[in-house]
Fold:
Amino acid sequence: MCGIVACSGKGHSQDVVVEGLGKMQYRGYDSFGFALVTESGSLETSKSLESYHEEKILLPPSQVLLGHTRWATHGAVNLTNGHPHVDPRGNFALVHNGIVENFDDLRSKLTESGRIFITSTDTEVIVFLMAQQLAEVQLAHQLVKADLTHESQSANSSETNAQIHEFRILALSRLQKKLKGRNTLVFLFSDGHILGARQGSPLIVGQGEQGLFLASDVLAFAPQMRRCFAMSDGDIVSIKSQQLVLIREAAMVVPKWQEVDFDVLESSKDGHKHYMLKEILEQWSTIPQQLQIEPDTFDDLVDSCVKAPQVIVLGSGGAALVAKQVAWILRNIGGTRAIDIPAYEVDAYECMVNETDIVLAISQSGETADTLLAMEKLNLWGVKIACLVNMPLSTMTRSADLVFYNRCGPEECVLSTKSASAQLTFGYLLAHAIKGEFSVAKKDINLLSHQLSRQLVKSEMNVYQSVVACLKDTPNVFLLGTGKHLATAMIGALNIKEASYVHAEAFSAGELKHGVIALVEPNVPVILFIPKDDLYMKTVAAEVKTRGACVIAICESENTTINENIDYQLVIPGGGSILSAVIPCQLLAYYLAIARGVNPDRPRNLAKSVTVQ
Ligand code: GLU
Structure:
């Protein structure tokens, strides 16, 4: 969802900012724009509805710039509604991530007082309110000064730069109190002063040899940054030239800079056409990264899981499905009472939640608004929370009691592939540790990684391309699994929907005769997950084949006997492991997207990091 970047450079910074905003594309966007102060001192903006191509973006030389990728929530996708928005006097430009929940109310009041809106965004409300607050703060100051000097004339023009910055900070802190919802804002004033305010959505401050940076995540300026810190909700940061001031609860505070290993945050397509394929194929190396668990924190989590009446696994979207599978693993391998709760439904489970439970909240970005909100509620209900994230410095890492990292490196494709298998692997390690068998899991994971390193190579992909031929022109695909493969089938259906826009739906195989079979007609592709030596799923294959389905079997081993009811067989790489069972559908989704002409890295309407509710 929306990406924000800003830079107050020591020299020309337009190229760095264009590159930085390019790195925010993975979050999902429908338009993008920049604001900058030119060398002659004027505030200028440029906006575009095109796809982001760094080489096509030509900005004038500038030291101070803002950039924004918009994921529209209010107002159509057009240039007028695109960010940055400039105040009517041209004093400042604003970029915004979030939703002003009381936007209707604020807009009616502003309209009544004579403001004329030119966009349909909620953001324009913020522009008018900021202009209003600035005027009020300045006026109050002049009145006080005039009172003291009895010379209101001379009071008008004598503010120092420092005072002007203070007025702006005061105006912004008053503005923050008027906005409801999660709204992170960055202003660029025509004198090159940058003001950032975080509420809900992330904002990282970085420092490097080329200057000071602000961004929605550390990836934007990873190559430029030497150190950084994450702002907290309510914080304001003021940047002018190379001076940085952090304000928390109306007082100046000293930032807690952190050194991050920025090199591991560099990503490339490694010669592949799309990040998605690169990220699928590198799972042989990301899965064993989970073995690097922080020992003390992990012992604490294991101990809590052993003692807690219930382990609650929490997530949103793809992570909610991973949570379902992790809960299955914790129950069936760890022997623990574990349930999964989709974060957006947490209220419905309140009566089941005990103070002594333990929560494992899963999110690749660590910024998922729905999961953060559910964590806040669980926290209020007194429950201990562990989080599992991939992105360093993310919001969840600051609101959880125990923090775990997947260490997969950046996942640029909107779909979760390597992060999903990493999250599952963490669950697998946890389940074994609960049983006192961590070393068994460790051995399994090392073996799995070894097998995947030989099997996840391009030369093994032909089989997926031939299966795609039967999926390419179909309106519907059904996926059936049971037990350990039910959540895997659901994850697979989500991958296919997201990457290729083919309607894919997963069900427990047990549901077939209770309804789904009505939808099975000649040539409908049905993907079945068939465990080793399983007779039940083979019966299911016969039942759908009888009705003319095109049956694609995803098997745990090549030895699974194929019969006339199965049209295509795919084998789960890595010896049929429950952790790599997600890979065949990831590959199907990828090749299906390619066959249907969809860019799988940037599917329409989707955002990687869903930072609004
Ligand atoms: N609500 C704002 C809009 O629709 C900001 C959206 C965003 O976070 O990108 O323009």
About this structure: The pocket of glutamic acid is lined by residues 1-2, 70-75, 81, 96-99, 121-123 (CB under 6 Å). The CA atoms of residues 27 and 608 lie 4 Å apart. The mean pLDDT is 93. The two ends are 11 Å apart (CA to CA).
